[in-house]
From TrEMBL:
SUPFAM superfamilies: Purine and uridine phosphorylases. The keyword Cell cycle does not apply. Belongs to the PNP/MTAP phosphorylase family. PANTHER family: METHYLTHIOADENOSINE/PURINE NUCLEOSIDE PHOSPHORYLASE (PTHR11904), PURINE NUCLEOSIDE PHOSPHORYLASE-RELATED (PTHR11904:SF9). Residues 23-269 form the Nucleoside phosphorylase domain. GO terms for cellular component: cytoplasm. GO terms for molecular function: purine-nucleoside phosphorylase activity. This is Purine nucleoside phosphorylase. It comes from Muriicola soli. The lineage of its organism: Bacteria, Pseudomonadati, Bacteroidota, Flavobacteriia, Flavobacteriales. The purine nucleoside phosphorylases catalyze the phosphorolytic breakdown of the N-glycosidic bond in the beta-(deoxy)ribonucleoside molecules, with the formation of the corresponding free purine bases and pentose-1-phosphate. It comes from the Bacteria. Pathway: Purine metabolism; purine nucleoside salvage.
């Protein structure tokens, strides 16, 4: 990755009218409808943006959407990238760098995840308070990382406390049951075995997914305040484990999505 590449990606988007967004949003699996809330939207498909990876997962559409929400300019990733698609860490996190260079001051991330904490149920929303990186690498582990920011990034408080408090307030106001917990990121794309779910619980994970953590690491590297919510789409009880049904996971994500949209739209208004 070079600064020249980042400049070309940014300049292309600016030429399409993507001017100084304040907030960047990453939408997870089955969580694409937030873009319907954007006014005066402009769209850039990933395959047209220089040096952008392409989303290869069938339920990730692959476009950046720019426009207005709550009287603020936003840029939204509708479709994200995953290590399980064969990408490197810097591919997965490249769009975060581009959005930062466009001008974003805050980053919101959503994901679909499995509930490891058996007190949590599918259809719940979990505010991510901390994470465990089980993806076997880092988006900061490349030679010239110091050209883009600190090599050794503090992760004592990776998720912005101020925005987390605001999300708690929004959830109470709108009667959204909000769980709080630790998100574990694995590579995937296979789901976990019973033994792996037991391991995750022992490690202190409340939910497990295949994304988010690399993006959060880069946000901290860029000193970009970030917050993340997980839509819990399945219950990972190793003693009563059902075979995975991806269609059902997408359906649960779709049913829970309005809560996530409420949280993000109200948070935008409060910032």
């Amino acid at each position: 990755m070079t600064q020249k590449q980042l400049n070309e990606s940014t300049e292309y988007l600016q030429s399409k009218g993507f001017h100084e967004p304040e907030i960047g949003i990453v939408l997870g699996t089955g969580l694409g409808k937030l873009v319907d809330e954007i006014e005066d939207s402009l769209v850039a498909h990933y395959h047209n943006i220089p040096f952008f990876p392409l989303a290869t997962v069938e339920f990730h559409t692959g476009k950046l959407v720019y426009g207005t929400m709550g009287e603020k300019k936003v840029v939204v990733m509708q479709g994200r990238f995953h290590l399980y698609e064969g990408y490197e860490f810097f591919d997965v996190t490249y769009p975060i760098r581009v959005m930062r260079q466009l001008g974003i001051k805050k980053l919101f991330i959503s994901n679909a995840a499995g509930a490891v904490n058996l007190d949590f149920k599918k259809g719940d929303i979990m505010l991510v308070e901390d994470h465990i990186n089980l993806q076997g690498g880092s988006p900061l582990a490349f030679k010239n990382v110091a050209e883009f920011g600190d090599r050794f990034v503090d992760m004592s408080e990776p998720y912005d406390p101020e925005m987390r408090k605001k999300i708690e307030t929004i959830s109470q106001k709108h009667n959204i049951s909000l769980r709080k917990g630790v998100y574990a990121a694995v590579v995937g794309p296979q789901l976990e075995t019973k033994a792996e779910y037991r391991m995750l619980k022992t490690l202190g994970a409340d939910a497990v997914g295949m994304s988010t953590v690399p993006e959060v690491i880069i946000a901290n590297h860029l000193r970009l305040p970030v917050v993340a919510v997980s839509v819990l789409t399945d219950e990972c009880d190793p003693d009563n484990l059902e075979p995975v049904n991806v269609a059902e996971i997408i359906e649960v994500a779709g049913k829970t999505e309005p809560k996530m949209i409420t949280i993000f739209t109200e948070l935008i208004k409060m910032l």
